[in-house]
Amino acid sequence: MKLVFITLLFFHFVYAEFEKSEKAVFDLKNGTMWQDDEEVVYKEDITMAKVYCDTLILNGYTDWYLPSIKQLQSIIDITNTNGYIKKEFRYNKAQKYWSGTPYVGDQDLYWFVDFENGKSNFIDKNTLNTVRCVRDIDE
Q1: DSSP category for residue 106
Q2: Are 32 and 63 contacting, i.e. CB atoms less than 8 angstroms apart?
Q3: In the beta sheet, which residues pair with residue 136?
Q4: Is 106 exposed, middle or buried (0-12, 13-18, 19+ CB in 10 A)?
Q5: What does pTM read for this prediction?
Q6: Of 16-20, 81-85, 92-96, 120-124, which gets the smallest average pLDDT?
Q7: How many other β-carbons are positioned within 10 Å of the β-carbon of residue 4?
Q8: Average pLDDT of every residue of the chain
Q9: Rg of the chain (C-alpha set)
Q10: Distance CA 8, CA 105 (A)
Q11: Containing H/E element for 102?
């Protein structure tokens, strides 16, 4: 019985992609910690979104930043039609979320992910979009 428990525990840690805490979701595969609290519903333009993440203090960490488009796309779940975001996220408004990735060729446009449909696009930096910050997990 003890061997079965240890084996199951091992496979949980080896194959689990996401873990969650009270105010964050841990993406173990990509080595990131995602903000997941009531504040992810606020909308900002790109400048204020960056300031918000750069000054966020959450779970005792101060090294949060606005995710890249690639990072934001990594939490899309096309099977979850109630927000198109991984089910581990409790705060999952089906809205457009900013990335910190500018559109190549026009620095007034930035990429976002629309969790209403799971698609990515770019939009003017003065548009108000939702903000979800991320940080790299310490090694």
Answers
A1: E
A2: no
A3: 32
A4: exposed
A5: 0.84
A6: 16-20
A7: 8
A8: 88
A9: 16
A10: 50
A11: strand 96-103
**Which structural domains are found in the chain, ordered by start?**
2-136 (3.10.100)
* Nearest-angstrom CA–CA distance, 85 and 58: 21
pLDDT tens, 67-93? 999 999 999 999 988 889 999 999 888
The Cβ-side half-sphere exposure at 84, using a 13 Å CA radius, reads 17
β-bridge pairing 134-136 and 96-103: unpaired
The pair of three-digit structure tokens given for residue 96, joined into one six-digit string:
């457009």
Residue 11 has what pLDDT?
Answer: 37
**Strand stretches in 3-74, DSSP E:** 18-20, 24-27, 32-35, 43-44
Burial class (CB in 10 A: 0-12, 13-18, 19+), 132: buried
Q: For residue 111, which amino acid is it?
A: W
Average pLDDT over residues 20-26: 90
